[in-house]
Amino acid sequence: MNPITAVERTVVPAREARAVRVPQGRRVSVVDLEGGQVGDVFAFAADDVTEHLSASHTRSATNRLFPAVGERFFTDRRRPILTLVSDTSPGRHDMLIAACDPERYAALGAQPSHASCASNLHRALASMGLALPFTPQPVNVFMRIPVDEEGRLDWLPAVSRPGDAITFRADMDCVLVVSACPQDLVDINGGVPTSLAIDVLPESD
Amino acid sequence: MNPITAVERTVVPAREARAVRVPQGRRVSVVDLEGGQVGDVFAFAADDVTEHLSASHTRSATNRLFPAVGERFFTDRRRPILTLVSDTSPGRHDMLIAACDPERYAALGAQPSHASCASNLHRALASMGLALPFTPQPVNVFMRIPVDEEGRLDWLPAVSRPGDAITFRADMDCVLVVSACPQDLVDINGGVPTSLAIDVLPESD
Q1: Where does the record place the DUF1989 domain (chains A, B) (predicted)?
Q2: Domain-embedded: residue A205
Q3: How many domains does chain A contain in total?
Q4: What tens digit of pLDDT does each residue of B80-89 get?
Q5: Can you state the percent helix, strand and coil of chain B, rounding each to 5?
Q6: What is the pTM for the complete model shown?
Q7: Domain range enclosing A176
């Protein structure tokens, strides 16, 4: 078989999520198409999606609050699943905050039909015939949650620019889910959720 | 029925865990009997233990890395489950690090039989006829994980003193599990794991 030489792009429409399979060793980028948009990224072992990228196990391994280029993300079974290989954005990514969910929007006074990253995740998994009895904590790419010296968190608008991309290498065969965060009541997306893209990069790159 | 006027103490032997039921409104303390000992605390809704105290949902609500007296802990369904009502310890508690597990000890070169907080949790739940398909991130009481201004974490020995206690009020009927962390290869327990106690306080207090 010839190597795959074209980028395989999956557009993630605003307020929705998409799932892609990424073979071990391949690189995959999450691209902020219009800028200022948070993506909730989830990763699962392809052969058993109950094994998932875990923020708390990753922190235990990297001894850092936030991801840095060259560092790995680990699963709840402490196996490496992704490596952060490059980042053209200003480098603000969150690994502290839960995915938004229907309960979050109910508390904010939204309609029950408001989209959420948690619901998006489960819908995207279902599109592959997969199901999960829980929602892991995501890695929130482009999400700007600074922490001050007292340990207080702030929620600020994303500063990623149009076309900014964060790129991971798959350290195992995995299922990657990216939700273009529908949050429009807290100002992390500048008030207007927009779309993202998932680019699985050529083998030859 | 007369009110319960005595403390109901459950000793948690070193390297083990115990589970107790705590009715809504009751207060419960985790006591460091000998000092310098980390406790991994898990809390679950009594009527459905898949609903659990979630560190990431708690951070989303409190906007703080670490718990403070007067603040609540929330479940993965964003309901309050515990309130931190008092603390006689120096106040160092962790809400960033995953429970230790067999994979952690394998990586540290320990024997396969080494106890872990994750295994302890599931064994303690099983003693109540309960089971869970995942291990939530615990609140690690007395665990000293400082974060510097660059977001780097350090792992330091606990500084809690003999008899120090952290006290919670149950905001719903819940199952509380406390594991006396068996970590003896990383110096968070001063090298020698010791026992804790769970005190369910009198109704009249």
Answers
A1: 11-175
A2: no
A3: 1
A4: 999 999 999 9
A5: 15, 35, 50
A6: 0.95
A7: 8-200
